[in-house]
Queue: 2 jobs
Job 1
Amino acid sequence: MKEIYLDNNATTKVDEAVFEEMRPYFCELYGNPSSMHFFGGQVQGKVTEARGRVAALLGASPEEIIFTACGTESDNAAIRSALEVFPDRRHVITSRVEHPAVLTQCRNLTQKGYRVTEIGVDGSGRLDMDELKAALDTDTAIVSLMWANNETGVIFPVEEAAALAKSKGALFHSDAVQAIGKIPIDMSSSNIDMLSLSGHKLHAPKGIGVLYLRRGTPFRPFLVGGHQEKSRRAGTENAAAIIALGKACELAGQHMEAENTVVKAQRDRLQDALMAAIPNARINGGGAERLPNTTSIAFEFVEGEAILLLLSELGICASSGSACTSGSLEPSHVLRAMGVPFTCAHGSIRFSLSRYTTDSEVDTVIREMPPIIARLRQMSPFGREFLKGQA
Amino acid sequence: MWDYTPVVKDHFLNPRNVGDIPDADAVGEVGSLACGDALKLYLKLDENKDRIVDAKFQTFGCASAIASSSALTEMVKGKTMDEALAISNQDIADFLGGLPEEKMHCSVMGQEALEVAIYKYRGMDIPEHDSEHDHGHAYPDHEGTVVCKCFGITDTFLKKVIETNRLTTAEQVTHFTKAGGACGGCIPKIQELIAQVLGDADAQPRTRPEKLSNMKKMQLIQEVLERDIRPLLWADGGDLELIDIDGSRVQVAFRKACAGCASSGNTARMVEMKLRDLVAEDIVVEEVSA
């Protein structure tokens, strides 16, 4: 069965050109970039080139790029570092809708005597800036807010938030894993001190991430040992993946305009058609500024896992904010923070497109989705009551 | 992705007996939109008002909730109400070839709806669920107090599920009943309940009997497998099936995660030790591929 892959916020296909770029660095050019000999040196050269390519996508300088193993490591490193460089500040601010890579760490900090404030969002998933202003004080060590939400695609005003943090002397970190490659980011004119990126969300392989660290920002490394990454992240460089990420960032820059025109048009067509064909559905975060590739739609009276598995039978890959897919029992913390009513929080489906999405794939989903929802509503006691009311 | 058995997939994709019975004799309703799953079960009885001749269901929930409901309706048809009441949630899971432990609450929901339908038909006292947040655990013995406030689950109900499924950890209780799965505030209380139930069981110390007839021995082997061994394997996503007993030779086949597992040899030894402890010293466990 040929897959229709609309789950690009979970992970992406490695671009063929990216794979070709990294391929020689396993069996042939396998040298250690730190070695003194020519054989390591040629890998070092490619790592330097990759660092430049990543920096170019972010509007950063190459020395501001620290390669890590994943977005989660970057998030953990950023927050830990801020607490170490400001030992007297005992307050951390984040939001209620962060990825667990940030949220779990912050919640663990409360056990260690830190004060943690989780800023709320409105019904469209927009950050409560007044709450942020009120929470910030001179005890705040770091504010960590995601650039764009993985479930809804809602974009936070991180620049504005970073300026507020700066005014209180706090560091600002953004988990930009979902934003990078999808919307333009320019760190050259920014108040953001640290930013996390993950390779596999932008058509590079899994197992490579970046922590952007603004020049002059005080930093304590998370991993210590060797002198790699200017002693800011010890451990032998994952050279092949770094080289792949460099290529992926170069391609992301080239595709940025298409992402915001072609992909966005496909996303809009998909959500408009589904909203027109299926009654009692709502777009989570529909009222807010969102990533061009993401839409999360809540369907009342049905449960997300059942929808996903019926889609999966047809080769369609999507995701849900439903509890039953994750083994937990509450609907997603993002949808709950937004106050999405229980009647539809359990039946939310996220479609996330990419530059590989075709119009005919979108057509297929538009055709197949309405009968799936109708079938499950027919089976659901609440859905049947609703359908009766309609008739 | 969940590792559902082919039977679960079949009952999800081709659910049997979806719908309603307008002149149903008994209707059982549990769950709510807030909980994320709900089941409405309809039963039609024969002219003696004893045997279930038809069953239909409507389910809001995940694939295993739908499959469990479908399985339940197939299982109760043709049974008397008393026979139907003997169906446990484990029977529903077994009918489906097993459920992931995190999904066992789906089988519990089926068993509950069945009890509610029959008890209601028999005019036994059942609390109606009225609020959106009430899970509607219309459990007939409702003297208990609510332990899990998020899902509205009572200690009476939890103790019953802990006992029948021989649960030993709070996490298992969450997987079977959802209790403790939201805010987690009641987990210490759940642990207390487990200790109580286990304590009751420990009151009758279990030791290896002095002498066993062949018949008794076979029965005891089966009992220990069901009660002490299979729940341990389920916890790791595995299972086993008893193939044959020949004197002291016990042949088992490993299923699900245990099948083809590199350490199934160790698992076989664990089974053997347990059987030697609780049945007879000369037990030999053999793994067969049947």
Job 2
Amino acid sequence: MPRIVLDTQGGEFAPAAAVEAAARVSLENGIEVVLVGHVDQVQALLEGHAYDPQRILVRHCAAAVGEFEEVRRVWHSRREPSVAVAAGLLATGEADALVTAGNPEATVLAVAQQLDRLPGVERLGLASVYPREIDEAGQDPFAMLVDVGAAVRCTAQDLLAFATLGAVWAQHVSGLATPRIGLLNAGLREDAGGEMLAAAHRLLRGRPGLHFVGNIEGSEITRGKADIVVCEGLVGNVVIKLLESIEEVAAAVGRHGGSEGWRARLGIRPLAQQIARLKEIPERPGYAGAPVLGIGHVCLQLHPRARVGAFINAIKLAAKAVRDGVPAEMRAAMAGRAG
Amino acid sequence: MIPGRRQQASVVTFRWDLDKTYLKTQFESFSKLVRIPFERAADKTHLPGVPELVRGLRRTAVARGEQPRVLFLTATPPQLASAIREKLEADGVEIDGIVFKDQLHRLVRGRLRELRDHVAYKLEVLLESRIGRAVQGVELLFGDDWESDAFVYTIYAEWLAGRLDGQSMGRVLSRMGVPAELALALAARAAMPVADPEAAIERIYIHLERRTPLAGFRAYGGRLLPTFSPFQAALDLFARKRLDDVGLVEVAAAVAAGDGTTARGLMNLIDDLVRRGHLDRGWRARSVVRLCAAGVAGLGRADWRERFRARLPLRSRVAPEGQVDWQAVPSPRDEHRRGESVPADAPPALPDAKG
């Protein structure tokens, strides 16, 4: 039975959302959940829900890293935060996978400090999912962007590793036989974007087993051309923050338009409502977070606004990935690449 | 035996509900319900670990020099008595009495409202068992969350403790939806004196067959322990010295074999009781050592070492035994709310109840 460790202290709705999700998952046979958090708080919340104690453990940890806190300062000034305790359970083999909605920087730091990297991995990649256009029925409504901030600068080898690991993940999780890989760049030419991106383009194109669709520009990110878009952490972080801020921009435009008279108000309201749905990504039925790539374990990072449904999806997805042997597949893929 | 010693031995009564507490009765659907009267003893299945628990309690009480009494109280009609007695006998459970609900008698006499009411029926039997009887001793009650066992047992316990008189009981019952004439009759019975000065309810165990959220039981106070498995009841009884080592191991082994509960699952059930403040570290350690020594469900040395390292701070969240909050006790009428999530601090169900 896969044992999934859940960091209850992270996220906007912590710890209630994580605890309720664990309680609900415990009622279905097949997954054991380890809740890392303040034991009294967690237990008091558990008692408000139906749960099965046979499939729930609680590991006490009162410290956490806030969404806007400087992670390294917290690391040195406090006792071990919950995400570090959770990662420690993976390291000692007491758990098989980790799910957190906490500060992503803290997740990467905890994982990087406590877990071994896969062979050939220099830098970890933090993935993020975003909604994209669907060309055909049954297609995954989310595409994956790697890296969104785990490594600020990357080498061409790092981008190849992100693509290789992302492809394994998409094959098992999204059920894509040959996921399409795109390289985020400022042009479509092979040598666009400077030496590092050109080298990455060559590596990706020459890598057997990867379905590389070439460079993609910013305007194509949401159009569904690629299932996995690889880029440097700095760029990915800017892109994902920009995507998330569209809703706020639309709201500001709406407020301005609203002052222009009733016709403008009439037109802008439905548009604004649709754009506001972007904010609901963590509540979409299929949303289950995105993986931290480069380690021999499953680690899912959820959006800080993730609610109960997203936690449940993530726990189940993590368990499925463990059952399907995704970490071993990733190890094999990286070993094959090195060979 | 020393002459006269048996008379001096204190009596301890273990009173059990039958369906969903002892037997795995399935009456969730009409088709399952109509099948019940035609079931033979061999068709009936018990909850894994419960027969072992009943036997262990009797054995331990005898070893303690007490006089054990195992009683069953059920809303099952007496027409099924022979099959049930056969089943208990087959399980090796020795009983001192069993009370059935004679539905036919009620039907013939036109007491139709009493057919569906189990609160008044069970409470009446419990009150009658104490009124005018000299020696009954302490009592441990076992029920489940399907009917209203927590409510009935708690009223009974509070009445026996002298904290709920007949008048107050009538008020509480009326507000909980018990038909007025039945509530009045019970209130009148409750006004009668209890002959046994030592009478007391030591513990109430409610098996969470429906996985009702624990928060719904807070109002009943610390005397009531909701349990997810008979193994949790066994742990608590072991810590209270009501169940011996052998009994604990037998229950654990039966639960593991019958329910497919893994070694991890057993450990998680132990830790759940610790987190809830019902089992202290010392008894936790003793329980784990006994289970490891017996090799129950593959519990090994490494497993319990790992568990000993777990840092589980203790707390004492359990309310004192007699502290029943009648205003917050959920009404037995709220059957539809069972199993739903409830807020950590559930709003009072009875705004002005007294008791």
